[in-house]
């Protein structure tokens, strides 16, 4: 079983509009990073019958990172609802994701009861869902990271979803395990 640890990164992540990073990305990666439909559904399709699983790593109240608070337009050091997962295909974590929502905006959406069901499967069923612009980074996540030698983050992306008065920042980092399994180039 793969274990995960918090990885301390010293550099502040540089987020850019996803189109700004397109020249640095292969066409195959662009399709993944710039897609705006459900990533869960895409991973399930790409897994070609291998079991897809959401591994819940952490969920509950906590203080968002500086850039997360900025992205949500909330005050620094305000508690938020945090959820960290690994999206696994077969035995491998392909994506690690961290979602953040202001606690004050949680009003019976029952997000905390999702457990190991995919947040995306729930989110994309909401008829009023609006997705904000995608931003991307080549930096590594500063949260749960698989403790397996040689696993690297290839691309990260984030966007804010709006639904029923709730703003939800979703950050997803695509791992080298996924690149290896799908034979994608490193970048
Ligand atoms: C936003 C989506 O949901 C995915 C599922 C997540 C979860 O269960 O916590 C987190 C991020 C996403 O990669 C999606 O499917 O597009």
Automatic annotation (TrEMBL):
Stated role: Removes the pyruvyl group from chorismate, with concomitant aromatization of the ring, to provide 4-hydroxybenzoate (4HB) for the ubiquinone pathway.
Record keywords: Cytoplasm, Lyase, Pyruvate, Ubiquinone biosynthesis
Reactions performed catalytically: chorismate = 4-hydroxybenzoate + pyruvate
Family the entry assigns: Belongs to the UbiC family.
Pathway note: Cofactor biosynthesis; ubiquinone biosynthesis
Name used for this protein in its record: Probable chorismate pyruvate-lyase
Residues engaged in binding substrate: 83, 119, 172
SUPFAM superfamilies: Chorismate lyase-like
Top-level taxonomic group: Bacteria
First-tier enzyme category under EC: lyase
InterPro entries: Chorismate--pyruvate_lyase (IPR007440), Chorismate_lyase_/UTRA_dom_sf (IPR028978)
Lyase as UniProt keyword: yes
Compartment annotation: Cytoplasm
Taxonomic path: Bacteria, Pseudomonadati, Pseudomonadota, Gammaproteobacteria, Oceanospirillales
Molecular function terms, GO-annotated: lyase activity
EC number per UniProt: 4.1.3.40
